[in-house]
Specification:
The chain has helices at about 1-30, 75-85, 85-90, 105-115; strands at about 45, 50-55, 60-65, 95-100, 120. It is an alpha/beta fold and about 130 residues long. It contains 4 helices and 5 strands, in the order αβββααβαβ. A 5-stranded mixed sheet has the order 2-1-5-4-3. Helix content is about 45%, strand content about 20%. The longest helix is centred in the first third of the chain and has 27 residues, at about 1-30.
Length: about 130
């Protein structure tokens, strides 16, 4: 009988922890942007050390992508693919902006190593 009580208490504790985690996740969840609405203002330093703002690209299409880290396999592949297709984006008056949490020095090394010719922006809060 004691084992059953311990098991019930254990299951109840697990359910309580799962419930608390669900409430916390719901509080921190943000709404996805509505298609067609303007992006919020954004100014971050690029790999060249100069600030880049979304307002600098008004009148152009902006492909703003976020990635976890420079020099990782998936992020490198993604950046290479953007570079391979860069001329097609430019023909459509579009710019590519990549954003991650690394600093501008890391972005500069990543661009040099991979031959990237679009801006990577450093967001320390990303």
């Amino acid at each position: 009988m004691r084992m059953v009580t311990i098991l019930i208490a254990f299951v109840a504790a697990i359910l309580l922890l799962l419930g608390m985690a669900a409430v916390r996740a719901a509080r921190h969840r943000t709404q996805a942007p509505i298609p067609g609405t303007p992006a919020p203002e954004l100014t971050l330093n690029a790999q060249d050390g100069k600030p880049a703002s979304l307002r600098d690209f008004r009148g152009q299409w902006v492909v703003l992508y976020f990635y976890p880290k420079d020099f990782t396999s998936g992020c490198t592949k993604e950046a290479r693919n953007f570079q391979l297709d860069l001329a097609q984006y430019e023909q459509k008056n579009a710019v590519i902006l990549g954003v991650s949490g690394q600093d501008q020095v890391s972005h500069e090394k990543f661009c040099a190593a991979e031959g990237l010719h679009f801006k990577l922006l450093a967001d320390p809060h990303c």
